[in-house]
Amino acid sequence: MRSVRRRTTGLAAAGLLLPLATIPAVAAGAGPSTAPTSDVTCDAVVAAPDRESAFAAASDATGVPGDLLKAVSYMESRWDQHAGTASADGGYGLFNLLDHAPEAPDGAGKDATPRAAVSELDRAAALTGLSAAELRSDAAANTCGAAALLASYQGDAGQGAGDGLASWGAAVARLGGSPSFADRVYSTLRQGESRTTDDGGRVTLAARPDAVLPEASTAAASDAAADCPPDLGCEWLPAPYAKGSADLPDNTGNYGNHDQADRTGEGGPSIDYIVIHDTETAYEPSVRLVTDPTYLAWNYTLRSSDGHVANHLEPSDVGWHAGNWYMNMHSIGLEHEGWAGTSGWFTEAMYQSSAELVRYLGEKYDVPLDRAHVIGHDQIPGILPGSTKSVHWDPGPYWDWEHYFDLLGAPIGGGLDPTADVAPGDVVEVVAGYDDNANPVTGCAQASPGSGDCVAGAGTNFALAYQAPSLDAPYARDPGWKPGGADGTTYASDISARVNSGHQLVVAQVRGEWLGVWWAGSLAWIHNPADRPVVVPSTGQTVTVGGDAAAAIYGRAYPEGAAYAPYPGITPQAVTPIEYTIGADQSYVVSDDTVTTDYYNAKSFDGSIPDDRTDVRGEDAYYQLWYAHRQVFTRAADVTLHDPVVTDVEGPSIEGRAKIGKVLTVDPGEYLPGDDTDVDVQWLRDGEPVRGADGTRYHLTGRDRGADISVEVTVSAPGYTSATFTSDAVGPVRPH
Questions:
Q1: How far is residue 223's CA from residue 344's CA, in Å, rounded to a whole number?
Q2: pLDDT at position 219
Q3: What's the burial of 138, exposed, middle or buried (CB within 10 Å: 0-12/13-18/19+)?
Q4: At CA 356, angle to CA 323 and CA 193, rounded to 5?
């Protein structure tokens, strides 16, 4: 496998299922002192007043095209400095310059670019005269150092600064670590980007349709055995399926590190979810673990620096990555190199590669690209009472869900603008923002060893829930996450009160700028001010309970006992509620009303014991719900299901002058669902229907003198409860 631009570092256990052994960190600046020297002068770059100016000055100083510098930096950091903290692979600053010597290529011919045995920081320091400390901590210095590196790599490749944009492909691939990185850089050049960065400034990269790599520089093809897009350059690095020792019988239950199944055929569980993890270690230790037969397997590992993908499992087989057997049965797990407590330091290269992979998997296996099916490890429910507190919390508060779903082509909130126009009974979806959404987070290094300290002002992926409609109120409670009933906190791993972007809720109350919503069995409050709203209108089925009896919540949709009768070799699995309930008068949004009720029995290495490798399918129906921070299940028999209600994005309005003889017209508005809606119009005079006035135009006559005119529209759609909306009135109608 390709093995470049890596670092080793301390490990933690938020992403992987078991704690990992600590490995030594490579010292900054390690390696022989064979760095080149140059007369690149960075004074003008360091003195630049903003990042836009620094890119331009670095281009002048080195001859590297300014647009190319922007595109490379966008792929490494999205133009953020991250307060000088290290990335997952030991890089710093806007260009993720490594603090250690890159490892040698793997010798398999996938990456034959020569590597100098010296760190990028040391090499950039020698080229510019800047210190490694300056290159780490100062964004402009980092930019000049990276530009000097690219210029030197261009020279090493036998190219000159003026040889044209396409000539820089080899230099970019060398800096990024792979041809696929260069391919993404040039794609970014063609598309253009613009973003407000973590210094509050704006960087804009204009689209460059002329930015095309030579055909010989295109990204490597995926290995034939890899379940990947063919041009993503995925590597097949299989997880072993092996007995605990060679002398055990073939029907032993002592084996690892995954289970064989038939998930892509008729006889196995379906693939319904894609689970986003982070590794809590570097890439190399991660792939060593997944290829260890005594450990456990997930489906894919993604490398931070260039987005390289290693595929470990056949899609038909079941990985052991989620800590919940039902979710393992039905999911594909992606481990992303990084730490859940590292503020925003997931690279754009990895985001883009992951999104391309998930788009492919979603289409191939019919997994909906929404936040109820492309989920974080932190959304996995516990399996038994008391187990929710032990479920992992990765990918953490800094995974940019909104950006990720934009890359998936399925924007959170459907691309609608957040609104404060919300009423009780509405279903809403949280769109919390990211770059401008700096919630307090503490204890990053303690909760996620290796991630470093939390960075004040870093973007986060959630809105906060409070126990009362006040910013001074305590954070909401989650009795599953904290069984003792403690309040939520700002601690990095504490998801008690975090309402992630994409979460759907039923609004129970509105008090000024506050929305009262049902959260973990209690009423919680989300701040939704008009100057920065955090929800968009949405639709969805909802569930309630009748009477005073609460409905149970489950972490698994297992079959009823009778479903096991044909399989005497399988022990029926208990259907046990977890820590939560749906109380009287509470309402939650359904995230899936077609949940598969099944249990896949996998107990022996060769599947030979009676009824082994059988998927037991039941008749008992479940609904999947948005509940607290997680996706959970409730039995359909215990709740009442309500159809979604047509929702207004923008209600009806009237155009025209309120004067006798004039004609008013109605703009009927916009509604959810956006397709297959029928709109019936009724004009009103002083709030009363005008007989026969049911068209889009209304001619004002003497009968309307002095009256207020409004219009009422009733919107219906198949499978939805119709709703009626009334415009603001115009008038009183004046004489001609």
A1: 31
A2: 57
A3: buried
A4: 120
- 583-619 CB burial, b ≥16 within 10 A, e <16: eeebbbbbbbeebbbbbbbbbbbebebebbbbbbebe
Residues paired with 634 in a beta bridge: 623
Sequence-distant (6+) residues with CB within 8 A of 105 are: 2, 3, 4, 111, 112, 113, 115
- Separation between Cα atoms, residue 657 and residue 344, nearest integer Å: 52
Beta strands 653-655 and 647-650, pairing class: unpaired
| Contact (CB, 8 A) for 1 and 283 | no
Q: Can you tell me the distance from the alpha carbon of 504 to that of 150, in angstroms, rounded to the nearest whole number?
A: 46
Angle at the Cα of 310 (from 304 to 313), degrees rounded to 5?
Answer: 140
Is residue 261 packed enough to be buried (19+ CB in 10 Å), middle (13-18) or exposed (0-12)? buried
Omega cis (within 30) before 732: yes
Percent pLDDT > 90 in the chain is: 83
Residue keyed to tokens 């890596």: 6
CB atoms within 10 A of CB 254: 11
| Type and span of the H or E element at 511 | strand 504-511
pLDDT in tens, 699-717: 999 999 999 999 999 999 9
Strand partners, 666: 654
Provide the b/e sequence for 696-714 (b: ≥16 CB within 10 Å).
Answer: eebebeeebeebbbbbbbe
Cis amide prior to 449 (ω within 30 degrees): no
Report residue 550's pLDDT band, with 50, 70 and 90 as the boundaries: very high
Outline where 429-516 has alpha helix (H): 444-447
Q: How many CB atoms lie within 10 A of CB 265?
A: 8
Q: 551: which DSSP letter?
A: E
Taking only the tens place, the pLDDT of each residue in 458-507 is: 999 999 999 999 999 999 999 999 998 999 999 999 999 999 999 999 99
What is the chain's alpha carbon radius of gyration, rounded to the nearest angstrom? 29
